[in-house]
Amino acid sequence: MRDIDPEQRIYAVLAAIPSGVVVTYGQVAELAGLPRAARLVGRTLRHLPADSTLPWHRVINAAGKISLPLDSDSGKRQIARLQEEGLVVKGGRISLSKYRWRA
DNA sequence: ATGGTGACTTGGC
DNA sequence: TGCCAAGCCACCA
After folding, report:
1. All domains of chain A in start order, with CATH
2. Cβ neighbours of residue A40 under 8 Å, at least 6 residues apart?
3. Which of A11, A31, A41, A54 is surrounded by the most beta carbons within 10 Å?
4. pLDDT tens for residues A69-97?
5. Which nucleotides of strand C come closer than 7 angstroms to any CB of the protein?
6. Å between A84 CA and C3 C1'?
7. Distance from CA(A77) to C1'(C6), angstroms, rounded
């Protein structure tokens, strides 16, 4: 049998992230068995279809900030969803020490 | 083939 | 806490 594609692994990790928490790109990469592939994760999310049901909004960068222009549609959508899940978002920043998910 | 780019990360000040 | 430089990896002109 052949291995699962990197993208499929990333999708699986995303689907496992519970509501109310966030993870970093690098964390997703590691959980997917793809160390140092943080950029690949970002690129994969960029290619997600608009109708995807995956919780891509729970992924932020290592600085604890939204990696999208805060004034873009996607950026505003991500902030809105995180707030709906109860997180405090200030200036596009989220407290990793409080909301980071530990698997 | 070669260099630039980006939804990234880490280490040094 | 914040800015910079380097490292990293896949994609694109």
Report:
1. 6-99 (1.10.10.10)
2. A6, A10, A29, A34
3. A41
4. 999 999 999 999 999 999 999 999 999 99
5. 7-11
6. 32
7. 33
- What number of residues does chain A have? 103
Residue with tokens 């109310």: A20
Which pTM value belongs to this model?
0.94
Q: Which nucleotides of chain B have an atom under 7 angstroms from any protein CB?
A: 6-10
Q: Which residues contact A74 (CB under 8 A, 6 or more apart)?
A: A68
* Separation between Cα atoms, residue A16 and residue A14, nearest integer Å: 5
Other Cβ atoms within 10 Å of A7 Cβ, number: 15
Cβ within 7 A of any strand B atom: A 24-27, 38-39, 41-43, 45-46, 48, 56-57, 59, 61-63, 67-68, 74, 78
